[in-house]
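I'll show a record.
***
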Amino acid sequence: MRTGSEPRTARSALRLRFWLSLWGLVWATGGVVGFALAGRPGWAAACGALWLLTTADMLMILRHIRQGPHYQPGPDVPPYPPPEHRP
């Protein structure tokens, strides 16, 4: 069912985002270790910054998953209705 308000009421696939964040976390950790051992501190710092960003994203995703069905509805829940009054 399309209502035309999908960009404003879109939902995120939180479980998919969790697994992609975990994948990014593994690669960023490997990058920090690998570049540090190779003597490339700049690249190790860049991977460290990516690791921090990925960790923050994962924490936010886990918080939304734990908040329950309002943020992670099932496929049987229809889209949110469009607002009645526009500002």
About this structure: The chain has a mean pLDDT of 82.
